[in-house]
Amino acid sequence: MQTSLKKNQIIPLTIEGLTGEGSGVGHYQGQAVFVPGTAAGDVAQVRIVKALKKYAYGIVESLETPSPSRIPVDCSSYQPCGGCCLRHISYEAELKAKEQLAADCFSRLGGFKDLPLRPILPSPQEERYRNKVQYPVGLDKDGHVTFGFYGKHSHRIVPCQDCRLQPELLNQIAATVCRILEDLKIPVYQEEKHSGLVRHIFLRHATRTGQILLCLVINGKSLPHAPEFCRLVLEAHPQITTILVNLNREKTNVILGEKNIVYYGPGTIQDEMCGVPVTLGPMSFYQVNTPSAENLYRAAAEAARLDKGQTLLDLYCGMGTIGLSMAHQAGRLIGVEVVPEAVESARKNASVMGVTNARFLCADAGQAASQLAREGLSPHVIVLDPPRKGCDQPCLDAVIQMGPKRVVMVSCNPATAARDVKYLYEQGGYRPLYLQPADLFPRTHHVECVVALEKSEQ
After folding, report:
1. Across the beta sheet with 157-159, what order do the strands follow?
2. Which fold has domain 10-70?
3. Residue 342: enclosing H or E segment and its boundaries?
4. Has 84 been annotated as catalytic?
5. Where would I find the beta strands (DSSP E) of 305-391?
6. How far apart are the C-alpha atoms of 288 and 131, rounded to whole Å?
7. Domain spans of the chain?
8. Angstrom distance (rounded) from CA 392 to CA 383
9. Number of alpha carbons in the 13 Å side-chain half-sphere of residue 5
10. pLDDT digits (tens, 9 = 90+) for 21-62
């Protein structure tokens, strides 16, 4: 018989697994209890902090028996920051949990209980893998300029001088920037008053070329002492290839505004992924773990199984990286993306590569797919790489109407991917052949996946 738990009640709990958000989960008298910072195999005394009818949330009161997968946490900001929610377990245990999470989504939400599961693709780097960082800037308790990350469920800055997910050089540049801001008496932003100037330090590092972009997000029209600021930063870090500011004067949680001012260099940096040249500015969407993203895209190419002369339709194509990485295998490539800057980048990338069989459309993926279906386009392969919310129904209906032989789902959210694959299977007869998870975000709860689908023979 299920018993309702009460707030502040302390219960014994064995953690059975991890949720999609990285919390541990166990069951007490039939009720699921979610506990952050725990690992599968932990035996703990847990204090209930929120009790609902069918489940509850708790925190560890005391750890009785640690899980074998636990490791020492090597970051002092781990608890208040919350970004690395899996830093307390071994990477092998993390990969196993992510692999199981993806499989569970397709079994539970998609109904694919016998779908072949390929071993998860690990990240080549467990640490220092991010090529982009956005640090909020503020004042510490002594009034000095500092940077870090917002704490869990707050806009309180948790100072973090050496985030282990970022390359050391990016952390060092951020520290230098804060020192120079203080020396030049450039005020930093105070969110509660909507006053001050510098809101964020935005950095990009091109993994293949080594180029670095530094952008300050400011609550104003220009950066005071800009020439002196650039000179001092470049003296300390000559690796920086461009410096600019982004103007964001709105009371908003959105980090970037719509306008940039370049103070040094071209305002962009150059990189390469899967042989595709890319030009990156502050607003460019780009996978933050370059080597791991290349593994993911190679898995997508394997699932596509393109032959010369075949047409590939790449929906939600961004800067065209996935499609262009396969263009040499296809007779024709059509990419669709709603962001104009991304479409322009895709066209430039194709030109630089000498790809003449590619066409990129600026449109909503669902609307464009519907229009292409009405025009009678019959692609042999369609790649879907939607945002976390997944594909909308008009897009999936258009895919079914165009009737490709194969569909490749590339997803950053196994739950919505399972939902969309189920729709393609039930409404269009597209049978999933296998599930390939991939880890692009070590030490966090995120997991990506590739699903190969094939049109069932009638």
Report:
1. 157-159, 145-150, 132-139, 198-205, 212-218, 240-247, 259-264
2. OB fold (Dihydrolipoamide Acetyltransferase, E2P) (2.40.50)
3. helix 340-353
4. no
5. 311-315, 332-337, 358-362, 381-384
6. 5
7. 10-70, 95-124+289-455, 132-280
8. 15
9. 27
10. 999 999 999 899 999 999 999 999 999 999 998 899 999 999
**pLDDT tens digits, 284-297:** 888 999 999 999 99
pTM of the entire structure? 0.92
How deeply is 70 buried, as exposed, middle or buried, from its count of CB atoms within 10 A (0-12, 13-18, 19+)?
middle
The crossing angle, in degrees rounded to 10, of helices 414-428 and 393-402 is 40
Residue 409 · residue 420 · CB < 8 Å: yes
Burial class (CB in 10 A: 0-12, 13-18, 19+), 3: exposed
Active-site residue among 81, 105, 412, 449?
412
* Measured distance CA(432)–CA(422) in Å, rounded: 9
Domain 132-280 architecture: Beta Barrel (2.40)
For the segment(s) 95-124+289-455, the CATH number from 3.40.50.150, 3.10.180.10, 3.40.630.30, 3.90.550.10 is 3.40.50.150
Q: Give 93's contacts (C-beta < 8 A, 6+ positions apart).
A: 39, 40, 67, 69
**At 336, which amino acid appears?**
V
